[in-house]
């Protein structure tokens, strides 16, 4: 039996309708009211990978163009600077020298959140400006006991190539100048992302 143009068109319409229905089912998933399950592939998410970045964070209070600025002062009777808050836009460089290659900036704030020791609440985004990660961010939110040799803080998310990111960072003080408050900290970032 020869197929007519109208029967071919009808067959194509039926196949297109079935595929559209399947796509709607995949996107909607199981309906739970305001929440639904999604297939990660529909968002372009492929295999999860672990990446390691190492860079130096320059927290500069001194000079004409500081990258850290105190926005709330601690009470004068606090030995831990409890209550102080600083806003940051710190350079992230390849090496410990400020003149080494700039990979991005740490933007956010930190606050002294402990009355017993110097323990900071760190809330910052590592905003990358180099290579394929240009424009992507990794978000860090955690406790930083600055006088410990190694501090660990969680990665709570990201954007761009770091959507759905999770992991942790390790911070190690490279140098600190008490007279100015300037610090250089080595960060090792271990991030799971798609």
From TrEMBL:
One GO CC term on file: apoplast
Signal peptide annotation: 1-29
Gene3D superfamilies noted in UniProt: Allene oxide cyclase-like
Location(s), subcellular: Secreted, Extracellular space, Apoplast
UniProt entry keywords in alphabetical sequence: Apoplast, Secreted, Signal
GO biological process annotation, one example: phenylpropanoid biosynthetic process
Cross-referenced Pfam families: Dirigent (PF03018)
Assembly with partners or alone: Homodimer.
Function (record text): Dirigent proteins impart stereoselectivity on the phenoxy radical-coupling reaction, yielding optically active lignans from two molecules of coniferyl alcohol in the biosynthesis of lignans, flavonolignans, and alkaloids and thus plays a central role in plant secondary metabolism.
Family: Belongs to the plant dirigent protein family.
Protein name: Dirigent protein
């Amino acid at each position: 039996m020869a197929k007519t143009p109208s029967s071919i068109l009808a067959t194509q319409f039926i196949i297109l309708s079935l595929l559209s229905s399947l796509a709607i089912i995949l996107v909607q998933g199981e309906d739970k009211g305001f929440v639904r399950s999604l297939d990660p592939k529909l968002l372009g998410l492929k295999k999860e990978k672990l990446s390691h970045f190492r860079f130096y964070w320059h927290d500069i209070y001194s000079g004409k163009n500081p990258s850290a600025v105190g926005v709330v002062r601690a009470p004068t009777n606090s030995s831990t600077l409890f209550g102080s808050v600083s806003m940051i836009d710190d350079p992230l460089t390849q090496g410990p020298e400020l003149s080494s290659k700039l990979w991005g900036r740490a933007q956010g704030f930190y606050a002294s959140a402990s009355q017993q020791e110097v323990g900071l609440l760190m809330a910052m985004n590592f905003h990358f400006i180099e290579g394929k990660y240009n424009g992507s961010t990794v978000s860090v939110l955690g406790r930083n006991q600055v006088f410990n040799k190694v501090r660990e803080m969680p990665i709570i998310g990201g954007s761009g190539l770091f959507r759905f990111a999770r992991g942790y960072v390790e911070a190690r003080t490279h140098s600190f100048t008490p007279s100015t408050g300037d610090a250089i900290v080595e960060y090792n970032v271990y991030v799971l992302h798609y």
